[in-house]
Every structure is written in C-alpha cells, then in structure tokens.
Amino acid sequence: MLPREARESVGEVNCLASPAARLDKVRKRFGYRDVLRGISLEIPRGGCFVLTGPNGAGKSTLVRILSTQWSFAEGTVEVLGSNVKREPARVRSRLGIVLHESFLRRELTLEENLHFAAALFSIPRSDQDERIARLLDTFGLTRRRRDTVGTFSQGMIKRASLARSLLNEPELWILDEPFSGLDPAGQELLAKVIGDFHQEGGNRTVVLVTHQLEIGRSLATGSAQITDGRVSHLSLAGLALSSHSGAPGEEAEG
What we know:
Elements: H1 4-17, E1 21-30, E2 33-43, E3 47-52, H2 59-66, E4 74-79, E5 82-83, H3 88-93, E6 95-98, H4 110-120, H5 125-138, H6 154-165, E7 172-176, H7 184-199, E8 205-209, H8 213-219, E9 222-227, E10 230-235
Parallel strand pairs: 3-8, 3-9, 6-7, 7-8
Antiparallel strand pairs: 1-2, 1-4, 4-5, 9-10
C-alpha cells in the first residue's frame, strides 16, 4: 500500500483530473416524450464547454439537470465529483447558475438582492460588501445598486443575474443563453468575463448554451452539439458544428 502522503497526493491529482461533469446514459421524459435519450457526455474540467443545437434538442434540460434543478428518470450524473442525486446541496454550493428566468426579486433593490443571495450562500457578512462591490463594478451596475430590480430593463436584469451567479465564487458556471437580451457592449463584456473566469481560475469551468455561434466559436475550448436528445457532434478543441446547428433565438423547453 502507498504511504499516506502518497495516497493523499494521488487523490488530489485525481480530483483535478476528474471531469467537471459526467452524464452516463441519462434519460429525461416529459409525459410520453423522451427529451434526453440515454445521453452520455463528459465535460472536461477547465475551459469553456459550449452546448449547441436546434431549439428543443434538450440543451436547457441538460443544464437544468446538471444544476440540480430537474430530476431525471435513468442514468447517472456527477458534477465536480459529486452525484447530483445523493449530494445536491454540495453540488449547488459549488455552482454559479444563469437560466432563462431570473432569481431576482423585483421589489428589492439590486444591492438588497445581492445581500439576500449572499446570505443564502452562507457568505460571511464581512466578505459580502467587497464581493458585491467588485461584481457591480465588473458588470457596470454600480450606479443602479440602490434601484429596485422592477425598474430594470431586460439587459440590466441579465447583468444583475450574472453578478448574482458569481457571488459564491463557483467552480462551475452554468450559463443558458446568457447573451440573450444583452446589447453589443454587454455581449462583449460578458465574453471577456467568461474568458477571464476560466483562464484565471485554474480548473474553473464554464458550461455555455448559446445560439450565438460566432461568440461560441470564440470562447469554446470544447463543445457538443445536441440533436434530438443525443450528442450528435463532439469536439474537445473548439466548436462542434454541423448543418443542423439551429438558428438564433430562445430555446423552447426541452
């Protein structure tokens, strides 16, 4: 048997080498319709992994399962080494999530929303002010921090949701159509933040669902195209595309 120090070292290496997420024969059904059809996929740790595909292909369903928002009928899902069914709270604590809907409360100011979210993440009060100020500055929201979210435009709500999702300094950032609703300046800013997130954060990983293929191509370090609930194309270096990649627009459920 290896000495204790060697076993601990091997364990650390295996943790770093393990994928950010692994799906094995995952099936998700809505009524009589299979949305994910026994899908298997491994998302490497580190970098920006892009999911593309036509509307209704199963991309949003896949990321909701990864983020523990939705259950699934068959298969196994592991995120950052944890089984999402056995350890959902542990998984959620290590994620940043931006989905189609906002988690912000419209009657609260932006600053109040962020403090509320920070408390849910169990971030010490002594750390909250610095983190919130930094994220407000990053997303150009400092001047609006005392305004109620109900007065925000769609683009401002998206920026605020992005700031909220980074409060807990996640290891895995899951983004479902984050460029939707942003103006060109906002899209350029978000692309930079995504690049900085995984390039400066060691083994931090982004999972990005987008129909903005040019932006996806510029960010992708790996990708999968989802078609009819299965992986139809896979690339571990850049964007995987076929002639059925789908047109820009919001994805229908599934």
